[in-house]
Amino acid sequence: METVYHAWNVVDHARVASGAAELAIFTALLYWFFTSSRVADMLEVVGERVGGWCGRDGSLRQAVRARRRDVYAKLDADAAVRNATLYRLKEGPVVPPPQPHTRPTIGLACPRCAPHSRESWQEADGQSDTVANILDIGRQRFAGGGVVSRHLCDLAQCLQLETHDYKDVTPEVVADARFQNAIDEEARQLADGEGGYAAARRRVEARAMAVLASISSAMSNNVLRLVAWLTHKAVRRVAGAGCGTRAAVRLAAARAAGLPLVFVPLHRSHLDYILVTFTLYLTGVRPPLVAAGDNMRIPLFGWFLRGCGAFFIRRGQEGSNHNSDHIYKSALRAYILNSLSANNNLEFFIEGGRTRTGKPQLPKAGILSVILDAYLEGTISDALLVPVTVNYDKLVDGSFVREQLGVPKRMETFWSALRGIWRTLNTNHGGIRVDFNQPVSLKELVSSFDKYSHILPAGAGSGEEVSLDRRLLCAHSRSTMFGAGVSERQRLMVEAIGRHLVYDAAQSTALMCTNVTAYVLAAEMRGGGTLARLQKLVAARGALLRRAGRDLGYCGDVRAAVTRALDTLGRGLVRRGRVVRAASGVGAAIELAYYANAVVAHYAPAAVVATALESLIQSSPDSSEVSYDDLMAASLRLAEIMSHEFILCPPCQRIEDKLAEAIDELVASDVIAEVKHTDALEEQRWSRRVAAGLDDAPPPAIRYRLCHTPAAAAERRRLILTLRPLLEAYAAACRHVADAPQKTVVTATLDDMLDDFAHNRMTYGEAISTDAIRNCHRLLRQWGVIDIITEDKQRVVRLQEPYTDPTRLSEICVHVYRYNMSTPLLDDVAT
Fold this sequence. Notes:
Blueprint: H1 2-35, H2 37-54, H3 59-91, H4 115-120, E1 131-133, H5 137-141, H6 147-151, H7 153-159, H8 170-174, H9 177-194, H10 197-215, H11 221-238, E2 243-246, H12 249-254, E3 261-265, H13 271-282, E4 289-293, H14 301-307, E5 310-313, H15 326-341, E6 346-347, H16 366-376, E7 384-392, H17 401-404, H18 414-425, E8 432-436, E9 440-441, H19 442-448, H20 468-476, H21 488-507, H22 513-524, H23 531-547, H24 558-569, E10 574-575, E11 581-582, H25 586-600, H26 604-619, E12 625-627, H27 628-641, H28 655-668, E13 672-674, H29 682-686, H30 688-692, E14 703-706, H31 710-735, E15 740-741, H32 742-758, H33 770-782, E16 786-791, E17 794-799, H34 806-817
Parallel strand pairs: 2-8, 3-6, 3-7, 4-5, 4-6
Antiparallel strand pairs: 1-2, 7-8, 7-9, 10-11, 12-14, 13-14, 15-17, 16-17
Helix pairs in contact: 2-3, 7-11, 9-10, 9-15, 10-15, 11-13, 15-16, 20-21, 22-23, 22-24, 22-25, 26-27, 26-28, 26-31, 27-28, 31-32, 31-33, 31-34
């Protein structure tokens, strides 16, 4: 009985509670019904009609009219206030509305090499300064449409994209004379050993057709639409700050010329393949055929990439058998040439693979040499080269820490791609920028090459000293795609054009908030500081970069930008508390340096001069002055050491001239000051570069002294820290060079550096880098200290005479050690 009574109480309480809830809901409905202006209008109409039927005004109608009078009275009062305000504004001083953020005009063609291209593809005023979010194209287009088109704007936009006719060039490739000659040559070689030319040719033809099938693209309008829709959804989820682009209107004007467009992006992420095609497709430009690495030929994803225009190429690595595969090389050359002759657009990553350091890499001239061949042979009348830059607030592919620490690169698989996509879609990577430079005429670049007198081959027996600019070009032009009988002049031309494209793209890369913040933490606030100080330094650095003509991928309140940068970088890279500082540890230092290196590349010339200046000061502590000649000579030596890390200037400019500009910048920023001598003529000081080019007028003896203000010391320290981790890595690589497999040498160097960092003998965790060590080996090979050969399918380091003697090896390595000097400016760097 007690149980029944208890159950009855529970039911009774539930009934009371439900009744109270019903009463509350009913009261809320009544309140909304009688306070809604739309319901009041309805009641007025009903009341008027009922009153008309009854012949009198009811109380309901009177109540509604009273409410209506109150509403209109309030509206009239608001209108009176607005009219009075407008009258005061008209009679008072005119205050202009807030203007949008002004961005520098970037990505223009070089005025020395391509003045006609620079003038031909100029946009109207203000168009090049506009950054458009490509994710909003569909929303803006269908904003005034129906309900379905507004809510499915991405799908509607993709369904209405322009279709193109993509011709299959495989039959033309099969009939190509060079392709057939390569088949004949290999068939004859096999027939000599096995007998029977016909049987050998059938086998070679079968392999050649398989190679061609593995290369060929299968671009489809339907696949492009599907991938465009999927990219809309993925990028909206990945890039919380949107995907911006600028200057795409240049391409709309250039495509009217009827010439093939060759897009040359810098490579940061696997997403680059899709983003460039996605941006071009949405802006009305014919999507290009894309040269993709064969590591991306994985199930399902490789099919999607092939449908988007990807043709897969092998990685050209020294020591691999691909370099001697004439069938493959002839098939690839024929495919590219016939695609260009069919007026297809083309896209290839001129750096080869993705950058592991965040800095632009030296160009790989393989595909570029094929395009130049097509022009020189008359296959195409001209082509428009378009440098492209893609940058991310946070790298979509994750970090390259494992590879920098010597762990072999993992090959992409179907399941690793799925895991990477799932991880990416569940992470906010901030903003993305995809920008296009002005198209540059290949014909104009070739004709301008004759003006590069400082890199052109000297006449036989001239006795003229080879300039540093030409030595660097000769050392780096190692492409395996050059055809037989290619002259040295053509090799230098391909290398020069490639370096110019990389330099132009690097200078127009939008610097994201994570890039600037990471650089300030690494070079200006390495010991840590308050959040307010970080915000102040980031604001000052951003203003200086903008004044130097660099585009910033963020705007608005710097405090919000710094907060977003710190949130994007994460607590694994930046420790936040009362003191904000970079996280300790090798992995965090390497990953943070990746983001900072985009700014490091900008300050490389000034950092070279500042480091050379410090080496001269520390080598002669009793002297308070340095001469211009000594400073320039030391800067040129350091520029050669850093030649595998940075492209300091375009090939149309001499490195010495670029370093002279950097010296002038240090003078203008009061880091150094020119010593005034009473017996020197004013004309000699400002005309020293003109006099340097005359045989009978040597440059005057100009000297500089240090400025000892705190601001000058801070600027010198910042510039030295910009290059110091690289010099630490180069010094360690020189100490461990030996006759051994290169992998063993690199591992020994990394282990020693890790031990030094663990025992606080080395400050810079980002110096522990496989890329920097291998670049130092390339430098030593360029100097003739070592040679790198292939034995048993692995690369082996061999010391050359006379550097097998440790004493002679130390004498050449001292050129690196002298710039890794001890200086009081770095004594307070935290370990």
